[in-house]
Amino acid sequence: MKKELKFQLGVAFNSAGFLKVCVFGVAFGVACFAFACFSEYGRDIMSVQAAYMRFFANKGTFYVWQPMIFAIIMPLLACAAFSDSYLADSACRRFSLCAVREGAAKYYFSKLAAVFICGAFAVLLPQLVNMILCLIAFPLESTNLYTEDLLQSDFYSADELGKALFGGVYIISPYLFLVLFMLISGVFAGLISVIAYQLSYFVKNKTFVLTFMFIFVNLFGILCDFRGIGLNILSCIFGLEIPSPTYGEFAAVAALYICAAAAPIPFALKKVKNEL
Question: How far is CA 131 from CA 24, 32, 50, 193, 253, in A?
């Protein structure tokens, strides 16, 4: 299993889709950082915001269009990384070689693990790049929070933070809070990519596999927000969304996507065995 997983990750890291997603993700993270630098250029050092306030995935800033755009494209990035790999293997006959050599179960589960890792990495990479650049360019803490211009400081009271998901962690350390949500977004992205991978065993269409979760997640999110249903996964991946999902809603979203990723396993595995 370990040997097959290593092989699948090697295939993934050298695939055109994964490399394109990484390049796009890095470019997005750098572009958001450049915008932050431009907007802070020429300001007095006393009013320059702290690094965590310029991190593009922090929904506690005035620049909510950045996490909004990233949330919309997140499912597409996750799926485009490696979710279509089974279809690619079938097209170039790599599927038969790997499945016969390692066995159907090892092939299937190593591929599933590689898809999860690639989907998570595709969403973590731009956030990590952006956070590192912000930490280099901006101060860790800023007097901006204590000036009279509180609207510019994007200040949250303790009462408001109490309504945020894991708001207590933010009070301890904003950086720890943002890292926590980076990991959460990576896990959810991995689950989304796995669901798309499972679909590839039943719908042998690359465009459908890469775009279905992108369309579903965004449309379902709009429906949830319109109906007041707390099952929008896009509300769970970035911190400081006020009002944010409750812990119960967060657990329900996690359970929903875990079940959606796990439920097709026996049927997809059977398909692999039948194709040998």
Answer: 16, 10, 11, 24, 26
